[in-house]
Design goal:
Elements lengths: L9 H11 L6 E4 L3 E4 L7 H17 L23 E5 L5 H6 L7 E5 L6 H9 L6 E3 L8 E4 L6 H5 L3 E4 L13 E3 L9 H5 L7 E3 L20 E3 L7 H9 L5 E3 L15 H10 L5 E3 L13 H5 L22 E5 L13 E5 L4 H11 L4 H17 L5 H14 L4 H14 L10 H17 L3 H11 L12 H12 L6 H14 L5 H9 L2 H14 L5 H14 L3 H9 L2 H11 L4 H15 L11 H10 L8 H14 L13 H14 L14 H4 L8 H17 L1 H10 L2 H9 L6 H7 L1
Parallel strand pairs: 3-4, 4-5, 5-8, 8-9, 9-10, 10-11, 11-12, 12-13, 13-14
Antiparallel strand pairs: 1-2, 6-7
Helix pairs in contact: 1-2, 7-8, 10-11, 11-13, 12-13, 12-14, 13-15, 14-15, 15-17, 16-17, 17-20, 19-20, 19-22, 20-23, 23-25, 24-25, 25-26, 25-28, 26-28, 28-29, 28-31, 30-31
């Protein structure tokens, strides 16, 4: 069993269940709108933290999950619910949510890209100041803005009622326990030095994407700072000199996105030497995206020699020969150094091979989607051209990136393309049910969030790698809705249309009738008929046309409601037009007649088939040699059900009933009893009902022929079905019937 295949913990299952059923479990509704915790509930932080963090995850990644306005108020009273470590993201969190939990003694608060938070939340943060150890405000671009209402203006207020004003006077005064702080992508204009000065002993600081010309103030923590991240900060000689004084550093990240803007700074041998000499505790260094001003590598002859080694003494990068021990992590993504042979680190991010690319995706997904999308693009090439050796890890990382950046177009395009190659058949054996379900979830998320052609195509293609309908059963409604949505768009990409119709067809093949009814109610029949109508107008009979009829054949199988819809939406008119426009298309004829066989099985709908035009068409198709016997067989099936209603139901003058019966006998006698079949029966019930009757011997004969052919050509499949559905006694009784024809009895015997 694979590592990723272990079942979810009981804790996770319970958390998920409670969140999806808050009213039925932990809460009741006050005045039909506000959630309130039951008074006898007391939950420790281990449970509350998980509830909050899972809630955020569900709102973000599960489109069916409804967020609750008053969710955070459930945690307002620390006497009944305790929170300690919570991770909140994006638009899910607003000022009033943080305000609701202000009495909690939070130890860790991560706010990532929470763009709706304003300076009101800065004041709320002060409530946590005495307990907070870790704080992230990464990407909270409005948290230093407050709304200012210019006093006493009448007209201007209507035009511009609120002005955003930068808060200048907030500092971390009183946050005595704060050790870990992430201010990544902080808004310009905030004085970082003043903001941080009150913090006595910072251990980790992230200033990603902030431009500071003077970082001298960092030396106030030179005895405590072990981690410093300056991603995308434009560096200078002064910065380097300050960094070299932070001798306790274990993790230093000065990487940059080499596409984002022009940087004057270039890395030199001297700078790397300075880091190695001064930062003796360094175990992790990231210099991704930097241009090396001079050659830092050792001569190539020496470089190529011997087995790949991570020993500093053999390092291909000269300055790193001075390291006391290999680094735990070295970031070299989008630098030339990652392609060298001897790199003194256990983990390297780069673009040389699968391992380096996966390390890059792992390291940068959370906060650097711009880098991650390029790394996933490299993984896509590896999966497409070579074979992935760390498949499970690759899949997990891509799933995480797609979940984390649901609204990032680049990641959705590259991620969905990579998933297509990572889930194809050659990797199938290595994947667990749980993992494949996670793939389906993120693919459907992508289809929901993006109407963009490339994403839609990639997602549809990826779904084709799954066994349908079995593997999609757990998201049955949702996947059908999404596909119908694609097919109902006015402007359509041909290739997506073809894949989507194929998937729709596969989804309604071999599923229970309640599934078919549900999909019918979603507008499935109407959508397929519209596609057929469009193709007819263009005079093209392609895969879309054939799949659409095939899908209608499948969805009407033993589902009277859908058969009725087909008739109500002018299905018969389209049937006749297609027959006339495409007289040579055998597959098409077979699919159309299979569908009409389903309609004819419904007693209440048969009168609608009782017109001279339809009966003549069905009679003429008895002679068809299209697709072996299939078209003739299905036409005869339709007529057998109509005959079963007796002479009094024959409400037309032309053609005569006897004449049609004669043609039916002739057709059945012309078929080879050992014909291999292009048809799939889930039940014999519609055929068996034609046996115990004397009103139409020809219908009885057609039914007996059908059973005889199927059980003799495919005994393993159809003998058990015939026995299970009570066919044997029906055949025995029929042999005794006077009205049955001799040849029918012979066959039955």
């Amino acid at each position: 069993r694979m590592a990723s295949d272990s079942p979810e913990s009981l804790m996770t299952l319970c958390t998920d269940f409670c969140l999806r059923n808050l009213e039925g479990t932990l809460c009741y509704l006050l005045d039909n709108e506000t959630l309130r915790l039951h008074p006898d509930i007391f939950l420790p932080s281990e449970i509350c933290d998980k509830l909050v963090n899972e809630y955020v995850e569900l709102v973000k990644t599960d489109s069916i999950f409804e967020p609750h306005e008053s969710f955070f108020t459930l945690f307002s009273d620390p006497r009944s619910t305790r929170l300690a470590r919570i991770h909140l993201r994006e638009q899910i969190v607003q000022d009033q949510d943080l305000e609701a939990i202000r009495k909690q003694d939070l130890v860790e608060l991560y706010l990532t890209n929470c763009e709706k938070l304003t300076a009101k939340s800065l004041q709320t943060l002060v409530s946590f100041s005495h307990t907070l150890i870790s704080l992230s405000l990464f990407g909270c671009c409005n948290i230093f803005y407050e709304e200012e209402n210019p006093g006493g203006c009448e007209d201007d207020c209507l035009v511009n009622p609120t002005r955003q004003v930068l808060v200048k006077d907030f500092t971390f005064e009183g946050f005595s326990r704060l050790r870990f702080l992430n201010l990544g992508r902080l808004i310009e204009g905030v004085n970082v030095e003043t903001l941080l000065r009150p913090l006595a002993s910072l251990a980790a600081l992230d200033l990603s994407g902030i431009q500071l010309s003077d970082v001298g103030f960092l030396t106030q923590w030179k005895d405590t700072l072990v981690s410093l991240v300056l991603y995308n900060m434009d560096l200078s000689e002064e910065h380097i000199q300050v960094i070299a004084q932070l001798r306790k550093l274990r993790h230093l990240d000065i990487s940059r996105d080499h596409l984002s803007s022009y940087y004057k700074f270039k890395l030199t041998r001297r700078v790397l030497n300075l880091f190695v000499e001064n930062l003796v505790n360094l175990s992790s260094l990231d210099i991704s995206g930097h241009t090396m001003l001079e050659n830092c590598t050792i001569p190539s002859m020496e470089e190529k020699m011997g087995q790949t080694s991570i020993e500093p003494a053999k390092s291909s990068i000269a300055p790193f020969r001075g390291l006391k021990r290999p680094l735990q992590f070295l970031g070299l993504f989008e630098t030339s150094l990652c392609r060298l042979t001897h790199i003194p680190a256990y983990k390297v991010s780069g673009d040389k091979n699968e391992e380096q690319v996966l390390n890059a995706i792992e390291a940068y997904t959370e906060h650097r989607p711009e880098i991650t999308s390029r790394a996933i693009n490299l993984l896509f090439d590896i999966a497409r051209i070579e074979r992935c050796s760390q498949l499970l890890r690759a899949l997990q990382l891509v799933i995480t990136a797609l979940k984390c950046h649901k609204d990032d177009k680049n990641i959705q395009v590259t991620g969905s393309a990579a998933l297509f190659y990572l889930t194809n058949s050659e990797y199938r054996m290595e994947q667990s049910v749980k993992l494949r379900r996670q793939v389906i979830q993120v693919v459907l998320n992508g289809m929901e969030s993006y109407q963009e052609v490339t994403v839609q195509r990639n997602c549809c293609l990826t779904l084709c790698n799954f066994s349908i309908p079995e593997e999609l059963e757990f998201q049955y409604r949702r996947v059908n809705e999404l596909l119908l949505n694609i097919l109902n768009q006015s402007r359509q990409d041909e290739s997506i249309q073809r894949i989507a119709v194929h998937l729709c067809n596969a989804l309604v093949c071999q599923v229970d009738n309640d599934h078919k009814e549900a999909v019918g109610k979603m507008g499935f029949v109407m959508t397929m008929l519209k596609l057929i109508q469009k193709k007819l107008a263009d005079k093209t009979c392609d895969q879309v046309m054939e799949f659409s009829w095939s899908a209608l054949w499948n969805i009407t199988d033993e589902t009277p409601d859908n058969c009725e819809m087909f008739l109500n939406y002018s299905g018969m008119k389209l049937f006749l037009e297609c027959l006339k426009e495409f007289p040579e298309k055998q597959e098409l004829h077979r699919n159309m007649l299979g569908l009409l066989g389903n309609v004819a099985e419904v007693k209440e709908l048969r009168p609608q088939l009782m017109t001279s035009q339809f009966i003549s068409v069905f009679s003429n198709l008895l002679e068809s040699k299209a697709d072996g016997i299939e078209v003739s067989y299905n036409a005869c099936g339709v007529l057998s059900h109509i005959m079963f209603d007796g002479p009094e139901a024959w409400g037309i003058c032309e053609p005569h009933r006897e004449e049609v019966v004669k043609r039916m006998w002739a057709a059945i006698q012309s078929w080879d009893i050992n014909s291999r079949r292009n048809i799939n029966y889930r039940s014999f019930e519609p055929i068996l009902r034609l046996l115990p009757q004397g009103i139409s011997p020809v219908s009885q004969h057609w039914a007996t022929w059908a059973l005889y052919n199927l059980v003799s050509v495919y005994p393993d499949k159809y003998c058990p079905l015939l026995i299970k559905e009570g066919g044997i006694p029906l055949l025995k009784d029929m042999i005794k019937m006077a009205s049955a024809r001799q040849e029918t009895k012979e066959m039955a015997r």
